[in-house]
Amino acid sequence: MSDTLDVVLRLLAVFVAFLVLPLVVGQTEHKVMAHMQGRLGPMYAGGFHGWAQLVADGVKFAQKEDIVPAGADRRIFQLAPAVALLPYLLVLVAIPVGPGNAVGQAVDAGIFFVLAVMGVGVLGSLMAGWASANKFSLLGGLRTAGQLMAYELPMLLTAASVAMAAGTVSLSGIVDAFQWWWVPWQIVGAVVFFVAGLAELQRPPFDMPVADSEIIFGAYTEYTGLRFALFLLSEYAGIVVLCGLTTVLFLGGWHGPFGADGMGWVWTLLKTAVLAFVVIWLRVTYPRLREDQLQKLAWTVLIPLALAQIALTGVVKVVTQ
């Protein structure tokens, strides 16, 4: 009975984090972009520093009419937002935030599980683009598919590199095996993993599938109200998952400086928050890539770097054993 209660409590904690952390990232993005770009609007709602901006956005989405195009595949159209969002909840269950039992559910093949489930989330955009009966949405869905094919490979290769270094595919095992001297020779893999993850989330500067100046808003053009809000929420949930995975795989997870592991989950959340800030910073700083530039970056830069990282990892493992 106690074991069952323990599992239920840990899963409940993961669910609460899933509901809260993406909203925190969304609110932070409002404020960071407002400061960096001199946007006054997000600073007014609610008074002090625009604290109620997120509440105002929620009320706005809830009040909008839920419209399904007459020519759309109704069931697929309505199901797509859930398919885009729920995989990130499953991934969050497997990400350890601290030593011991500080994980929703430990998975032995953690890397394979999280990368496979994250790939499923992209199907939500494909379903939305195909089911909307809109040429702009279909084009956005096809761009999403092309992006997935190009950027999934460097993510897998760099994750394989860190698994080679640790000698395990368990996420908790990777953090347990982590040594600080790994950082200099795994940093290239970390950057490749992070950039490829941004592209899979369709975050700027890799947001060609939702290019508003070309294809309106891509796969989400026909969505309104809460269904559109679910797609936005899936984007922020994806940011939390990507930053958490990068922290666990490449930045030592719950390990802090001077061997201060007692703080555990605090270090994990702090590193994740810093990476989330970087994601927002990149949105404000860099212009959108063209579709050809996006593909060229994946196939001619990221994949060769990922292969080089695997080769370097193999050399280091042979030398240090």
Automatic annotation (TrEMBL):
Source organism: Streptomyces aureoversilis
Keyword Metal-binding: no
Family of this protein: Belongs to the complex I subunit 1 family.
Compartment(s) of residence: Cell membrane; Membrane
EC number(s) per entry: 7.1.1.-
Molecular function terms, GO-annotated: NADH dehydrogenase (quinone) (non-electrogenic) activity
Physiological role: NDH-1 shuttles electrons from NADH, via FMN and iron-sulfur (Fe-S) centers, to quinones in the respiratory chain. The immediate electron acceptor for the enzyme in this species is believed to be ubiquinone. Couples the redox reaction to proton translocation (for every two electrons transferred, four hydrogen ions are translocated across the cytoplasmic membrane), and thus conserves the redox energy in a proton gradient. This subunit may bind ubiquinone.
Alphabetized HAMAP family for the sequence: NDH1_NuoH
PANTHER family xrefs: NADH DEHYDROGENASE SUBUNIT 1, NADH-UBIQUINONE OXIDOREDUCTASE CHAIN 1
Catalyzed reaction equations: a quinone + NADH + 5 H(+)(in) = a quinol + NAD(+) + 4 H(+)(out)
Assembly and oligomerization: NDH-1 is composed of 14 different subunits. Subunits NuoA, H, J, K, L, M, N constitute the membrane sector of the complex.
Membrane-protein topology: Multi-pass membrane protein
InterPro entries documented for this protein: NADH_UbQ_OxRdtase_su1/FPO
Gene name linked to the record: nuoH
Membrane spanning stretches: 7-26, 76-97, 109-132, 153-174, 180-199, 228-252, 264-285, 297-319
Top-rank lineage group of the source organism: Bacteria
Entry keyword set: Cell membrane, Membrane, NAD, Oxidoreductase, Quinone, Translocase, Transmembrane, Transmembrane helix, Ubiquinone
Protein name: NADH-quinone oxidoreductase subunit H
Chief localisation class: membrane
The protein's enzyme class: translocase
